[in-house]
C-alpha cells in the first residue's frame, strides 16, 4: 500500500541531494544538517528512540553553534529571469498550479481506493505526487536539466536553514510537556485566579485560551486545559452555557493567540525565513492588529451567544 | 509546579533571542528533569516524538518546483501580469486571496494553499508588484512589510476558515473531549459557530488591508 513511507523516501532523497550540493560548495555545516535529515526520513523508524534523540541533538548543535550558512551565486540574474519570463509566459503559472490542483484532486480520488492508498494520508500523498508531476512538466516544458531544480531547491532550503525543522522540534517539545504534566499544572494555577461572575469567567476563559496558546504555540494543547479548568465546570455546568458555542468559539480565541506567538513557528517564523525577511517577527507584527480585535470579538460572541 | 520552569525557559529564550532550537531542547531538558526523568529518558522521549512528527517537515518537498519556476521567471511574470490590470491594488488582491483561502479551508482544502505552495511563488510577488505601482516605488523596508502582509493574510484565512469544515482536527478534538464529560455534540453544531468569527476575521483584516491601500496611495500621490 502506498502511504507515508513513500513520501518520506522522496523527502529524504531531496534532503540528500541538498547535502551533496552543500558538500560541493564546501559548506560542511549545511551538508551535515541536510544529511542528518535525509537519514531521519529514510531510517527514522529503524534507529530507535534514543537514536532519534541523538539525531535531534546533533541538528540542534549544528544550528546552535552557527555552523550553517547560505550558498552564493546560485541565483539566476534578474535580467535573465525577465527574458525567460517573457519567453515562457503563462505556462509558468500553469505549472505552479499543478501542485494545489493535484492536492485537491488526489484528496478526493485516493480515498476511493483504500486498498491501494493510505486514505488517512491522502492529502500528503497527493501533495508529493503533485510535486513530481509539476517537476516532470516543468523540466520538459522549460527544457531544464533536473539538476537545475535540485540546485534551486537547495538554494531556497539553505535560505530557510535550521528554521525548517522548528515546527517538528516544537511538536516534540509538546510531547515532553505532556509527559511531564505541564497542562495540569497550568490548569491548577488558572483555577486559583478566576473572578466570581459570569462575565469574569468568560473573560478568563477567552484570555486564558489565547495566553496559554501563546505559551504552547498551539491551541490544541491549550484547549483541553482551559475546558477542564473553566469551560466545563463554570461556563457549561454552573452558568448553563451552550457547550457548542463555548467550545467552538473558545478554540477560535486560541487561534488568535496562535497569530501572536513565535512558538507557532510553522505559521509565524518559517514564512519569515521563507520570504527572506530581515525581521524574523515581521509576520507576527502584521498580525497583531487583526488578532487583538478578533480576540475581543470572540470573547463578546461567547458572552452573547452561549448565554441567551 | 516545577514543570512550569520549562515554560519560563521558552519565554526567556525567545525574548533574549537565543537560537530557538537550543531554547526548545533546553526547555525539554528542564521540564523533564523537573518531572523526575533522567537525561537519557528525556532524549528518548524527545526522539520518539521527533520521529513521529516527521510529516510536519514533508512540506519542503515543494521547494525544487518553486525554485525551478523562480529561476525561469515566475515572479517576474506575476509582476508583468499585475502591471496590466488597472484596478489591481495590493489590498484588494490580498482581500480576495483572504476570501479564497477562507472558502477553500471551509470545505476542508487546507493544504491546497500555504506559505511554500502559494505565498512565496505567487501571492507575495503579486502583492509586492501591485504595491510598488500604487506607491510609485517601495524601499526595502516597505517591500518586507508587503511580503509579511501576504504571509499574515494566508494565516488569517486558514485559521478562520478551517473550523467551518466538519472533519477538521480541531472540531474532532472538541467533540472527543466533550464526550469525556458526557456531552454529545454533532460536528455540524460546532462548525456553524465558527461562521460568526470567520465573518469578523474577514471584516477586521479586510479593513486593515483597505487602510494599507490608502497608505500606499497617499505615498504614490506625494511622489
UniProtKB/TrEMBL annotation, chain A:
Keywords: Membrane, Transmembrane, Transmembrane helix. The keyword Transmembrane helix applies. The chain crosses the membrane at residues 6-23, 50-68, 89-110, 122-140, 160-182, 202-232, 244-267, 287-307. This is Permease. It comes from Sphingobium ummariense RL-3.
Automatic annotation (TrEMBL), chain B:
The chain crosses the membrane at residues 58-75, 156-178, 190-210. The keyword Transmembrane helix applies. Pfam families: DUF969 (PF06149). It comes from the Bacteria. Keywords: Membrane, Transmembrane, Transmembrane helix. This is Membrane protein. It comes from Sphingobium ummariense RL-3.
Amino acid at each position: 500500500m502506498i502511504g507515508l513511507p513513500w513520501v518520506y523516501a522522496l523527502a529524504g532523497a531531496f534532503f540528500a541531494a541538498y547535502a551533496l550540493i552543500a558538500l560541493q560548495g564546501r559548506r560542511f555545516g549545511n551538508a551535515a544538517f541536510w544529511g542528518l535529515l535525509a537519514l531521519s526520513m529514510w531510517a527514522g523508524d529503524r534507529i530507535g528512540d534514543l537514536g532519534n534523540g541523538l539525531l535531534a541533538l546533533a541538528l540542534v548543535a549544528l544550528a546552535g553553534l552557527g555552523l550553517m550558512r547560505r550558498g552564493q551565486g546560485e541565483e539566476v540574474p534578474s535580467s535573465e529571469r525577465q527574458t525567460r519570463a517573457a519567453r515562457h509566459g503563462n505556462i509558468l503559472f500553469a505549472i505552479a498550479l499543478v501542485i494545489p490542483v493535484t492536492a485537491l484532486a488526489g484528496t478526493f480520488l485516493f480515498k476511493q481506493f483504500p486498498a491501494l492508498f493510505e486514505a488517512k494520508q491522502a492529502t500528503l500523498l497527493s501533495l508529493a505526487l503533485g510535486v513530481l508531476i509539476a517537476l516532470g512538466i516543468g523540466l520538459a516544458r522549460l527544457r531544464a536539466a533536473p539538476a537545475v531544480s535540485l540546485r534551486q531547491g537547495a538554494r531556497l532550503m539553505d535560505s530557510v536553514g535550521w528554521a525548517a525543522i522548528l515546527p517538528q522540534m516544537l511538536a516534540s517539545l509538546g510531547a515532553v510537556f505532556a509527559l511531564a504534566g505541564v497542562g495540569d499544572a497550568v490548569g491548577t494555577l488558572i483555577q486559583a485566579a478566576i473572578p466570581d461572575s459570569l462575565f469574569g469567567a468568560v473573560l478568563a476563559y477567552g484570555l486564558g485560551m489565547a495566553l496559554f496558546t501563546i505559551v504552547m504555540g498551539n491551541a490544541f494543547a491549550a484547549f483541553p486545559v482551559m475546558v477542564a479548568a473553566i469551560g466545563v465546570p463554570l461556563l457549561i455546568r454552573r452558568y448553563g452555557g451552550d457547550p457548542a458555542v463555548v467550545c467552538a468559539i473558545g478554540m477560535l480565541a486560541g487561534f488568535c493567540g496562535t497569530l501572536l506567538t513565535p512558538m507557532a513557528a510553522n505559521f509565524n517564523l518559517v514564512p519569515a525565513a521563507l520570504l527572506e525577511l530581515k525581521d524574523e517577527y515581521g509576520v507576527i507584527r502584521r498580525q497583531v492588529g487583526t488578532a487583538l480585535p478578533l480576540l475581543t470579538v470572540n470573547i463578546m460572541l461567547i458572552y452573547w451567544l452561549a448565554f441567551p | 509546579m516545577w514543570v512550569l520552569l520549562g515554560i519560563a525557559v521558552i519565554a526567556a529564550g525567545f525574548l533574549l533571542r537565543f537560537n530557538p532550537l537550543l531554547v526548545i531542547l533546553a526547555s525539554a531538558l528542564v521540564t523533564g528533569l523537573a518531572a523526575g526523568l533522567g537525561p537519557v529518558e528525556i532524549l528518548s522521549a524527545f526522539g520518539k516524538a521527533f520521529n513521529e512528527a516527521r510529516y510536519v517537515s514533508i512540506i519542503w518537498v515543494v521547494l525544487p518546483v518553486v525554485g525551478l519556476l523562480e529561476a525561469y521567471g515566475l515572479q517576474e511574470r506575476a509582476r508583468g501580469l499585475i502591471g496590466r490590470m488597472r484596478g489591481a491594488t495590493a489590498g484588494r488582491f490580498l482581500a480576495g486571496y483572504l476570501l479564497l483561502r477562507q472558502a477553500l479551508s471551509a470545505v476542508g482544502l487546507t493544504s491546497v494553499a500555504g506559505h511554500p505552495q502559494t505565498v512565496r511563488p505567487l501571492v507575495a510577488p503579486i502583492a509586492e508588484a501591485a504595491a510598488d505601482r500604487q506607491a510609485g516605488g517601495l524601499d526595502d523596508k516597505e517591500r518586507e512589510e508587503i511580503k509579511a502582509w501576504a504571509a499574515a493574510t494566508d494565516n488569517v484565512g486558514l485559521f478562520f476558515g478551517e473550523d467551518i469544515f466538519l472533519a477538521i482536527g480541531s472540531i474532532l478534538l472538541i467533540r472527543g473531549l466533550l464526550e469525556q464529560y458526557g456531552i454529545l455534540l454533532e460536528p455540524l453544531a460546532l462548525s456553524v459557530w465558527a461562521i460568526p468569527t470567520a465573518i469578523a476575521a474577514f471584516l477586521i483584516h479586510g479593513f486593515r488591508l483597505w487602510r494599507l491601500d490608502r497608505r500606499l496611495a497617499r505615498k504614490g500621490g506625494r511622489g
